[in-house]
Amino acid sequence: MNVLNKLRMSEILQNDEANSTTKEIEMDEQEHEDVEGDDHDHEDISQKSQSSSDSSENEDEEESELHSKIDTLSTQISQNPFIYDNHIEKIKLLKQLGDLYRLRDARADMSKHFPLTEELWLDWLRDEIPLISEDKDKKRVEELFEKAFGDYQSVPVWLEYVQYAIGLMKEKNGLPLVRDAFERALSAVGLHVSQGSNIWDAYREFENAILSGLIPQPGAVVTKEDEEAFALQNQKVHQLFKRQLAVPLLYMQNTLDEYKEWLGEDIIDINTQKAFDKAFEKLQHLQAFEDKLINSEIPQLQTYQEYIQYELKSEDPSRIQCIFERALKENCLNTDLWLQYTTYMDKLKLKEQIESVYERAVRNCPWSSQLWVKYLLAMERQSAQFEKMKGLAERALLVGFSQASDYLSVWCQYCDYLKRRINWDADHEETLETFRLSTQSAVNYMFENFGNEGDPGAVLQQYLSFVEAKFCKNMERAREIWNEVMQAGHGAEAAMWLQYYRLERMFGDSKHCRRILQKALNSVTDWPESITQAYIQFEREEGNLEQYDMAVLKCEAQLERINERRAQSEQSQQELKTKDQQAHGEKTFPKKRKQVEAKYGGAGDSGLQKKRKVDHLASAKDSAEPAVKKVKEEIKEELQEENPTSDKQEDSSRVISEEESNSRVILHGESVKHDPSKDNITVFVSNLDFSVEDEIVKGFFEKCGEITNIRLVRNYKGKSKGFGYVEFTDSNAVLKALKLDREFINGRPVFVSRCEDRSVAKSQPLKFSTNLEKNKLFIKGLPFTMTKEDLETMFQVHGKLKDVRMVTYRNGKPKGIAYVEFTDEQSASQAVLKTDGTVIGDNTISVALSHPPERKTSLLTRSDLSLGSGKKETAFRGKARTQVTLLPRALRQSGQQDTGSGDSSQEKVKTETTSMNNADFRAMLLKK
């Protein structure tokens, strides 16, 4: 720096000399220009002063603008603290402003709601460490380090920690504190294959520095204590080298060379060499994974999964935890990865580490009910206090899950804990009452927030009734609970009645069992055969002959009534099919229809009735097969007579297959009879393109599970009607298939729903929620050319997406509206702020939180409509197209006739009647 200064000064002096010489020459030639030069100098000084003033004003304006932006962000954060980018922007502006105290508060506020990244922690720590002046400052910094360790395992953060510890060497017990810091760092990240050597090298350099300080000065007298201290420190360095060489780390060959150089020998001891060889061999296997990580882009989830699977085979808990931590640092929002890690930690049964991992898991992925449920279980295994368990459950319920099933799973887990907490062999009144109140609170919570769909299987109430019946011996209360369940809309479900019956059978008495079965017999509509079987079996086991006979009579009578209703429903369907048959049959097969009519009794109703009987035989039981076969053969012969051919190969299209002849007999097409026994393994598929065949449907659903049968409903030509049934081997496949609802086949959205008998099925509720969904957006005004992939690309920059649904017409054409669901509310709120009003091409889109209007219900039923009941409007249609006048024709005519007399009263009647409307007439009629 001194040399540079001298050079610069010499340049300045030389320039000054040159300038002075030039000025002297110019002064000799033009003296009058000196005055002008002085004036210009004054002007330059004035301009510089003005420029400085302007710069100061600009700085003030910039600072004022920064304050305004910070205040705006503070307001937004106070209203919704879960928008990540607002915190980042506020911290950036405060750092630019240099306001340390507000910056510290902003960072602390963000840390409450989000785990901070490695970069954020390093910035924070590096700002705080130089400000340490008192013990409270050191304590605050150490607390910050502990929080940083709790978010992610970061090698740079641990290096910052050991450097901070080295800075405290001069304090009391400074050396042990530094060594403790290094050992903690090695335990946390010392096995990190690519970065762990940084910690090891820093530790060795620290110990080497201490060793160098113990070397005696030339001429100094060396005591025995000095020799012992030197030997002890020398041994520490030896041990550090050996420990590091036994760990598979990148560039470990360089560490070996350094060790040999430090020893001054080319050969090391046999044990160290063996440990190095084993670690180096391990490194060769890990090198492939490390190369993939280096050459791929973040988050590298697939590579990390392969890496984890490899380490799991080694069964080394430390290495497995290390690779999990590395993967989670890059994939901190991946719920499946956290579930995988927590499952592994549950197996290790390390109390302190398990709680830490679960706390970090729910901090990173609070929307996952599975993580909260596993967290509750893990804490229960560790015998956590009741207050802690209660607080944990309350935290879970406050995070804002997207589905009712998530809340239900948390409530069920918490109620399970409360039930297991009861010690039935001791005084348990308090714990039992806590269980009862909490379970009832769960029932109320689910109903108030989600209605009957909150707990569709009444799981919570069934659980409470079971505990009341089995453990409390309180069947009266159990029956009350079940009556509430039935009154809540489950009275027509056979499965619920059978559950009630089983509970009564185990813990109740025969009288109430019989009463339950009798009520079920008269109430069940979905599967009455199961109730009749249970009722008859019960009377066989518990009743006398008279009671058995009575049960059989009741069951037979009820089944007869049900079969009659089914027959009526089938008949109405048959009539609709017959109309369809007549409409299509006359157009397609007019000649063959006449021939068939003549063959079965001639034209007219009687012939058609006979023909319909044959149609019915085609779908009847095996006993009718000969008649159907006969009709098929006759029609086949007649068609062959119409189109004779000597060479079948030349005109094979005229040969009628068995399937085609079957479609000719059943003119209205192929029907599929509902089989209630397979409802739980079957889905109903509709809105299919008519060209879609069984193979395409099979290819679409085979990823859900093994398919046993596909039954597409067909018309009289044998072509698909666009709907049918897909039958699986188990019910789990049905659940997967239902998730494919509104996915596309051949450009059309496919509707997938549970299979049920629509003739007796109860009305279905609206599938999609009508409540405010804070994590789902409703977008309208989209260009029709915009695809689902375009929408995902547009919105995924604002947060992790859970689902994107483009709303289309039944033919697959877009409506210009869509729903985008995020995994968390803050991302959705951020997306609304940043995308609402965005212009895409010629369209300006509208983005808002999803809050569909409730479906309107009819205000008036048919029985409500009567004369004088007022406006005839319902939710399904508006005013009637034909408005019939209620004024009698005689009055209308009398009002129009001219009596020819001058009677003023008649003229008055005439005037009134001609101007009288329906309301006037109704008022007049009611008055009379």
UniProtKB/TrEMBL annotation:
<feature type="compositionally biased region" description="Basic and acidic residues">
    <location>
        <begin position="615"/>
        <end position="638"/>
    </location>
</feature>
<keyword id="KW-0508">mRNA splicing</keyword>
<dbReference type="InterPro" id="IPR012677">
    <property type="entry name" value="Nucleotide-bd_a/b_plait_sf"/>
</dbReference>
<dbReference type="GO" id="GO:0006397">
    <property type="term" value="P:mRNA processing"/>
</dbReference>
<dbReference type="InterPro" id="IPR003107">
    <property type="entry name" value="HAT"/>
</dbReference>
<feature type="region of interest" description="Disordered">
    <location>
        <begin position="1"/>
        <end position="71"/>
    </location>
</feature>
<feature type="compositionally biased region" description="Low complexity">
    <location>
        <begin position="893"/>
        <end position="904"/>
    </location>
</feature>
<feature type="domain" description="RRM">
    <location>
        <begin position="775"/>
        <end position="852"/>
    </location>
</feature>
<feature type="compositionally biased region" description="Basic and acidic residues">
    <location>
        <begin position="576"/>
        <end position="589"/>
    </location>
</feature>
<keyword id="KW-0677">Repeat</keyword>
<dbReference type="Pfam" id="PF05843">
    <property type="entry name" value="Suf"/>
</dbReference>
<feature type="domain" description="RRM">
    <location>
        <begin position="681"/>
        <end position="757"/>
    </location>
</feature>
<feature type="compositionally biased region" description="Polar residues">
    <location>
        <begin position="12"/>
        <end position="22"/>
    </location>
</feature>
<dbReference type="InterPro" id="IPR000504">
    <property type="entry name" value="RRM_dom"/>
</dbReference>
<dbReference type="Pfam" id="PF23241">
    <property type="entry name" value="HAT_PRP39_C"/>
</dbReference>
<feature type="region of interest" description="Disordered">
    <location>
        <begin position="888"/>
        <end position="920"/>
    </location>
</feature>
<dbReference type="GO" id="GO:0005634">
    <property type="term" value="C:nucleus"/>
</dbReference>
<feature type="region of interest" description="Disordered">
    <location>
        <begin position="564"/>
        <end position="673"/>
    </location>
</feature>
<dbReference type="GO" id="GO:0003723">
    <property type="term" value="F:RNA binding"/>
</dbReference>
<dbReference type="InterPro" id="IPR008847">
    <property type="entry name" value="Suf"/>
</dbReference>
<dbReference type="InterPro" id="IPR059164">
    <property type="entry name" value="HAT_PRP39_C"/>
</dbReference>
<dbReference type="InterPro" id="IPR011990">
    <property type="entry name" value="TPR-like_helical_dom_sf"/>
</dbReference>
<dbReference type="InterPro" id="IPR035979">
    <property type="entry name" value="RBD_domain_sf"/>
</dbReference>
<feature type="compositionally biased region" description="Acidic residues">
    <location>
        <begin position="26"/>
        <end position="38"/>
    </location>
</feature>
<dbReference type="GO" id="GO:0008380">
    <property type="term" value="P:RNA splicing"/>
</dbReference>
<keyword id="KW-0507">mRNA processing</keyword>
<dbReference type="InterPro" id="IPR034217">
    <property type="entry name" value="SART3_RRM1"/>
</dbReference>
<dbReference type="Pfam" id="PF00076">
    <property type="entry name" value="RRM_1"/>
</dbReference>
<protein>
    <submittedName>
        <fullName>Squamous cell carcinoma antigen recognized by T-cells 3-like isoform X2</fullName>
    </submittedName>
</protein>
<feature type="compositionally biased region" description="Basic and acidic residues">
    <location>
        <begin position="645"/>
        <end position="657"/>
    </location>
</feature>
<keyword id="KW-0694">RNA-binding</keyword>
<dbReference type="InterPro" id="IPR034218">
    <property type="entry name" value="SART3_RRM2"/>
</dbReference>
<keyword id="KW-0539">Nucleus</keyword>
